[in-house]
Design goal:
With about 230 residues, this protein is mainly α. The protein is built from 10 helices and no strands. The longest helix has about 40 residues, at about 140-180. The radius of gyration is 22 Å and the shape is elongated.
Length: about 230
């Protein structure tokens, strides 16, 4: 905050560097509007949908790939391509294929799915083989093997993937919203403030996005069972 304030005092131009106080004043004005809360709600919904879809898809395909070497080989180049493709390229392609509201969700899925998939697959491969052999010798039921051996080994990897994706999801969704411009979106509001050269509001929207993403991350941390760390 001190560096920010000093930089603002040196530049003396709100157009280039508004002060922290100007940003807070702009933010207080935004919070009092309906458009702020609608934009927050719709962006949050897109983030949740993107993470949930990529979470379910990544875990499901990881379990299937663990059972089928052919499927694992088939998915390997697909996952590698998804990880290597620039986010902007993904958004541009999505703009051609989907409506403006679905573009941020698709971008989030394509960015987060490889993380969930690779982490879950790594967790499955790290399961102690000796424990599995012992369970087989003592005729432990398949359900008990999954809940008592497999799941505890995979859960830390899933938590790790979730921690990474929470940050990536907000960045990818907001970036996609800037380009796709759905009616209610934090990214679209960023774009509007840039068009009108309203830099204090641009800083205010950015600050709001950072604070909301941190609140979501901390809230999820509290909801996770003991041992799940973000």
């Amino acid at each position: 905050l001190m560096v920010w304030q000093v930089a603002s005092m040196i530049i003396r131009q709100s157009l280039y560097m508004p002060s922290p106080w100007e940003t807070l004043v702009a933010l207080s004005g935004l919070v009092a509007t309906d458009i702020f809360w609608l934009s927050v709600a719709f962006t949050f919904l897109r983030v949740v949908l993107g993470v949930v879809i990529s979470f379910a898809l990544g875990i499901l395909l990881a379990f299937l790939a663990m059972r089928s070497a052919f499927l694992e080989q088939l998915l390997r180049p697909v996952v590698a391509a998804a990880k290597a493709t620039p986010v902007m390229s993904i958004i541009m392609l999505a703009l051609v294929w989907f409506t403006s509201s679905f573009v941020p969700i698709f971008s989030c899925v394509l960015l987060c799915f490889p993380i969930f998939y690779t982490n879950t697959l790594a967790g499955l491969k790290s399961v102690d083989k000796q424990l599995l052999e012992m369970a087989s010798v003592f005729s432990v039921s398949r359900r008990r093997v999954i809940t008592g051996i497999v799941v505890p080994s995979v859960i830390p990897h899933i938590y790790s993937a979730l921690a990474v994706c929470l940050g990536f999801s907000w960045k990818s969704v907001v970036a996609a919203e800037v380009l796709s411009s759905p009616k209610y979106a934090l990214g679209y509001q960023l774009y509007r403030t840039k068009l009108y050269l309203d830099t204090p509001s641009l800083f205010a929207w950015t600050l709001a996005i950072v604070v909301i993403s941190l609140i979501v991350e901390k809230g999820l941390k509290r909801l996770l069972p003991q041992g799940g760390r973000l």
